[in-house]
Design brief:
Elements: H1 11-22, E1 27-29, E2 35-38, E3 48-55, E4 72-78, H2 84-94, E5 100-105, H3 108-123, E6 128-133, H4 154-166, H5 171-183, E7 185-193, E8 211-214, E9 225-228, H6 232-246, E10 254-261, H7 267-283, E11 287-294, E12 303-311, H8 314-320
Parallel strand pairs: 3-4, 3-5, 5-6, 10-11
Antiparallel strand pairs: 1-2, 2-4, 7-8, 7-12, 8-9, 10-12
Length: about 325
């Protein structure tokens, strides 16, 4: 293991300390827990947007804390869910009296802990709604879409929910628009090399040189197919074939496109994937309205990438174009 860390057991705490020291005017800690919120939280007259999950995926989750995005995030250990108490601390810190929307990926530990946090918050008089990211088409068939994992496509949910809340939408309006976005997002990824969790000190899975795994999850969950590494165009085709087969669409529909790096893949290679994706979308009669290319949901130093599509209507397009900023993200 070659990492720029001190003691593995201090990895998360020192990372959080560094982020807060680097962005003191943008982010602050809520109480003494791993609860990170906007420096100005709670924002008067606004529905609070909260998220959370395990460390190791920056900019997910706390990287999406900022104006036009989320108001706070609960931070767990590497690849491990935060506790209910951490998420409750976030909700307390961001609630301005109009309720709180939880937006997070569909993983069993997160669901269990955040459902409990919602119950505790509601007992304190905080109205809570929840929208789950379930965009990974590789993780379950279409007739069991509710079991799918949330991966990089959650970016679109943060953007849409945050914009609606910033514009003054009430809790039900924000929930509905985020849910509509979630229903129209599809993603699929490919892994080229594993990552190493600091506390374990060894790779999370084995993937021999010269091989790839289509559909592998961001924690090393098994994909749908392993085989020889193929050219970038062929890899993009595999991902788009699965996404387009699952996402209802017709010629003339608009989509926003996210090509996401998993932590160790150069941005140059991501643009090569986008090039092929744009060609495929044009051939399918779809309009690639906007593109985001870079690292939006990583897995430590895992090599690989994912492609996500959001099918748009007029309202979703407007919300995706609304101003947003975060100290951990360069392009929104």
């Amino acid at each position: 293991m070659q990492k720029l860390i001190n003691r593995p057991e201090d990895f998360v705490e020192e990372m959080l300390e560094g982020i807060l020291m680097a962005h003191p005017g943008k982010l602050r800690q809520a109480g003494d827990s791993r609860a990170i919120v906007r420096a100005e939280a709670p924002v008067s007259g606004k529905v609070g947007i909260v998220t959370g999950g395990g460390s190791g995926h920056l900019p997910v989750f706390m990287g999406y804390v900022g104006p036009g995005l989320a108001d706070g995030a609960a931070v767990g250990n590497v690849f491990a869910s935060p506790s209910a108490e951490q998420m409750l601390a976030v909700m307390r810190a961001v609630d301005a009296g109009r309720g709180v929307l939880q937006v997070y990926g569909n993983y069993s530990g997160d669901v269990m802990n955040f459902d409990l946090a919602a119950e505790l918050a509601e007992a304190e008089g905080i109205a809570v709604a929840t929208v789950l990211g379930t965009d990974d088409v590789a993780s379950a068939p279409g007739d069991k879409a509710g079991r799918r994992r949330g991966i990089a496509g959650i970016f679109f949910l943060y953007k849409v929910a945050g914009a609606c809340a910033e514009a003054g939408g009430d809790l039900e309006q924000v929930r509905l628009v985020a849910q509509r976005a979630a229903a129209n997002v599809r993603s699929m990824g490919v892994a080229l090399a594993p990552c190493t969790v600091p506390s374990a000190g060894r790779p999370t899975f084995e993937l021999p040189a010269g091989e790839m795994e289509i559909g592998m999850g961001i924690h090393g969950e098994p994909g749908v197919r392993r085989g020889p590494l193929e050219a970038a165009d062929a890899v993009a085709d595999h991902l788009l074939d699965a996404i387009l087969a699952d996402l209802p669409h017709k010629r003339g529909d608009r989509v926003d496109v996210l090509v996401n790096g998993l932590g160790a893949t150069p941005v140059e290679e991501l643009y090569i994937l986008y090039r092929r994706a744009a060609m495929r979308l044009k051939d399918a009669g779809l309009i690639a309205r906007r593109a985001w290319v870079g690292e939006y949901a990583t897995s430590l130093e895992m090599a690989g990438a994912s492609i996500s599509l959001l099918r748009l209507d007029d309202e979703l397009a407007q919300l995706m174009d609304a101003p947003a900023s975060s100290p951990l993200l360069a392009r929104l």
